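Example 3.2
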Amino acid sequence: MKRAATAVVVTVLCVLLYEASVRGLYRLGAEVPALRGIQGAVGFFVQENAILESGWEKDFLGRWRNGATFSSRIGGLFAPHPTRGWSTVADRRETIAGIPYATNNMGHRSPDDWSFAPERFRILALGDSFTFNHDHGDREDWPYRLGLLDGRYQVVNLGVSGYGIDQMLVTLEETIDLYRPHMVVMAFIGDDMARALLSFRDYAKPRFRVDDGILRQVGEPIPPPGDLARGLEGRGFVTDRPVFQLKTVFTGWVLARLARDAAEREPLASAILDRTLVLTRERGAGFLPAYLGANEELERPATTTAWGERLFERWRQANGGNGVNARQAFLTLMDSTLTGAGHYDAAQNAAVARMVRDAVAGSPEWRRWRSETH
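Structure, written as tokens:
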């Protein structure tokens, strides 16, 4: 009995020590430069192991205490957005790790300003960092290269690093009447569908749920950074949203959350794709979903069958078979210049652009536009 009581006391003290240590690092990091490296390491460790929003919240709070909203890895390219969570900043020029990044007058990843071109076939490209083309320079992204394949295209790159498909949907809802596209391409990796289960990632973000077969947006409005940070500062790292707490170990809370997420992710992702399809059809545009293979899906294709690809294939077969499965195409293209690691390079982006071009060329929207303009 005495040993059991001692074990309980030691465990509680360890949890409290963890809580106090992490809190202290986040508070002192802004004031003591020597601690910032340790703070970053702790934040990364927590983020990678949390698997829930709590890790991302801690990471944001640590950055905020150091005077930043987003990671230095993306510089000042992004800013909080009241409905999408975050978005690109217009008219930005930055060089990060030797890589030039430019956004135009509308905030698109492009060094060239945008203006409406009524005589051209307009394509909206929605996506995440693979579409924004993180880690690679201007004019290497697949939407830019798509525009080079046919001078009759006007391609708008609305990709934003870190986006889930829910944020892509919100972006489309807010911009489709401005750009009046003939075709909407939603390009995503499997993780982008899982991101729809989160209400916080790099920053607070929109959250949808499916209730009685209807897709509904839930949660509170997205606050500005100061309000968000103040709301998080009062939270205990252990007591509010569990990461390494006794409740996690003894009640299986994390396992229950994972099981609930696994049950929700396909109905939610399918409902988001359904609404995107309906919205584009209502505006007279085509919808082209594109599944982008990434990382281990391309590095170990024989042993990797991603749930995201399976979901994508089920959805597109249920909706007429329309869409691009870039992973399957990449498997036939893999050579020394087409590797699976990291974000796409110029060769991979060129391959995606050709896949999308071929899909557009076979679409009724393209045929109709050609008949109307010739």
